[in-house]
Write a structure and sequence with these properties.
The protein is α/β, with parallel strands linked by helices. The protein is built from 19 helices and 14 strands. It has an eight-stranded mixed β-sheet with strand order 1-2-4-3-5-6-7-8. A six-stranded mixed β-sheet has the order 9-10-12-11-13-14. Helix 3 packs across helix 4, helix 6 packs across helix 11 and helix 14 packs across helix 15. Keywords: Membrane, Transmembrane, Transmembrane helix.
């Protein structure tokens, strides 16, 4: 433009320039909002620092602690017999959101612990209770902590470990990293990581789908986004982990019964105090880090572990309930099937059935055999191992080898391990509708294998249980080290018995018993009716009017005289 020339009028702003101006402002606002949200989100994901025990703002130290090599402290409590006189020394590892005080063995009879000579130490896992947090915690580290705790407490070259739920999961780490220090291990409903690489995808998907949606998301966050675990379990927008929130839907009917038995004897303040112990130092270093470790990426899974006791100088037992709604029983069964050295015990129960109170082993056909082990002589130190078969209308608890003190003393002197079973349909053993004379002998053989009784074992039976011993001698003689038959029941129709002897013996029976035996032999389908009808006298043993001899009465008096009426 030439000098002196006047400028034209300014152009008014167009719609486009106005839009670009507004758009620019919106972009700036969006950037500010994103930055603000990111800053808020970052701060929300940062857990507060733990309130370490012994620090000015932390909880006080009330129980003994040992100092590890890295400077951390592990808190513990002891129970059972004194350590220096104990026959066995055990370390208990507690479950999720619990502490050293929640120990299922703590409720055991003091007399039983003394009789077994067991010393138990229960620890607070890192970040729980009064144990220092471990910010570098891994799947392996707690196993090494346990080893160091055992050394500092002077538990000797070998000790037992047992754990419940997430504590049971840690026992896998002990079996992997410190097997040379273990005398044995017990896993009670151990937590399962759904991302263990040896688990079949179809089984994990099926088990995972049965979890509550909130728990599925919690496990996903812990596995894929562990840095988000604190926020996920402290936010209020979505449901967080049901175990943390105390959702009752995760508890089965059996769980509620067990919990009520454990908590009913306690005062409300005592229950509140015990629940508070797990999170004394904050939630992140206890329960949140627990989730990240338990469901994060593992260096191994249980099916990678080799037999820790190849010389049979120890054993591993895994206990599981079929109604567990937190830990999937299907995955537990699969793991146990892959590891032949694991003794798997599944506790089964139905809502309308009697509760299961004693251990059971699962047979190949799916049935369960219930049993009790004598506390007189532990299996791993016994010179002889014996299976006892109870009599008619009795159970595994009716064991003449353990009922009287003099007999018990002899058993201890001879170092005999005795296990008594409930026969099929009795006590807590599943019925066997296909039961035959042969089948129980085969059950006994399989039972012995599952309990690792060795290539040969003794069998003993009383009355109808003694009759079963004949089946063992017939069908599994190669597995027997010896046999004892105490007044074994006789079948009057055994074909090699002389008829004159059977007729004479049969005629001496009460008339009602003669008819009961005839019905059982010739009309077995009528047995139930015969023994429940009220027109004629039924089997005398069933109706409680057997023809006992004076010596029988004397023996019974001695057996039951030491028991109180409730026990009888």
């Amino acid at each position: 433009m030439a000098e002196g020339e006047s400028k034209g009028p300014a152009m008014p702003p167009t719609k486009k320039s106005k839009f670009m101006s507004i758009s620019g402002i919106l972009k700036i606002l969006l950037i500010v909002l994103v930055a603000k949200f990111s800053s808020w989100m970052y701060n929300a994901t940062l857990p507060p620092p733990p309130k370490t025990c012994g620090s000015p703002d932390g909880p006080t130290i009330t129980t003994p602690r040992i100092r590890l090599q890295d400077g951390r402290h592990i808190s513990y409590v002891e129970l059972g017999v004194p350590k220096d006189v104990a026959k066995s020394k055990m370390i208990y590892v507690h479950c999720f959101d619990c502490s050293k005080y929640l120990n299922p063995f703590a409720g055991a009879s003091k007399t039983v612990l003394e009789e077994l000579g067991v010393y138990i130490v229960s620890l607070d896992r890192p970040g729980y209770g009064e144990s220092d947090p471990d910010t570098k915690r891994t799947v392996k580290s707690l196993a090494l902590d346990i080893e160091e705790l055992a050394d500092q407490l002077g538990l000797g070259p070998k000790f037992y470990v047992y754990g419940f739920s997430m504590g049971g999961q840690i026992i896998w780490s002990c079996l992997k990293y410190i097997p040379h220090r273990l005398a044995g291990a017990v896993l009670i409903s151990p937590a399962v990581n759904y991302w263990w690489h040896n688990l079949p995808l179809n089984l994990t998907n099926e088990a995972y789908s049965q979890l509550l949606p909130q728990d599925q998301w919690t496990y996903r966050v812990a596995h894929y986004l562990p840095w988000l675990t604190y926020w996920w379990n402290s936010q209020k927008l979505f449901y967080s982990f049901s175990v943390i929130s105390g959702n009752p839907d995760i508890f089965s009917f059996s769980d509620l019964i067990v919990a009520s038995k454990l908590l009913l004897p306690m005062e409300p303040n005592q229950i509140k105090w015990m629940k508070s112990q797990s999170r004394l130092q904050g939630e992140f270093e206890s329960i949140h880090r627990d989730l990240n470790i338990g469901f994060g990426k593992w260096e191994f899974d249980p099916m990678d572990i080799e037999n820790p006791f190849p010389n049979n100088d120890g054993s591993v037992h895994l206990w599981m309930g079929d109604g567990d709604l937190v830990v999937p029983v299907t995955l537990q069964r699969y793991i146990a099937q892959q590891l032949e050295w694991v003794n798997y015990h599944e506790m089964m129960g139905s809502p309308d059935g009697p509760p299961i109170t004693s251990p059971r082993i699962k047979l190949r056909d799916g049935r369960h055999i219930s049993y009790v082990e004598s506390s007189a002589v532990p299996k791993d130190v016994a010179k002889s191992k014996m299976i006892y078969i109870h009599c008619f209308d009795c159970s595994k608890y009716h064991n003449p080898f353990l009922s009287a003190s003099p007999v018990r003393a002899v058993v201890q002197q001879l170092q005999v391990y005795i296990v008594a079973i409930d026969r099929p349909g009795y006590g807590e053993s599943d019925p066997d509708p296909k039961r035959t004379v042969k089948s129980l002998a085969l059950d006994i053989e399989e039972f012995a294998d599952r309990l690792n009784l060795g290539p040969k074992f003794y069998v003993a039976g009383f009355s109808m249980g003694g009759q079963v011993i004949w089946s063992c001698l017939k069908y599994i003689p190669h597995r027997l080290a010896g046999a004892i038959l105490i007044s074994p029941a006789a079948n009057y129709w055994w074909h090699n018995l002389p008829s004159n002897l059977t007729n004479e013996a049969y005629s001496r029976q009460l008339k009602q018993d003669q008819w009961s035996m005839r019905v059982a032999h010739y009309l077995p389908w009528l047995t139930y009716w015969w023994n429940t009808q009220k027109w004629f006298p039924s089997f005398s043993v069933i109706d409680g009017s057997p023809n006992y001899s004076p010596p029988d009465i004397e023996v019974l008096t001695k057996l039951f005289g030491t028991m109180d009426p409730v026990q009888v």
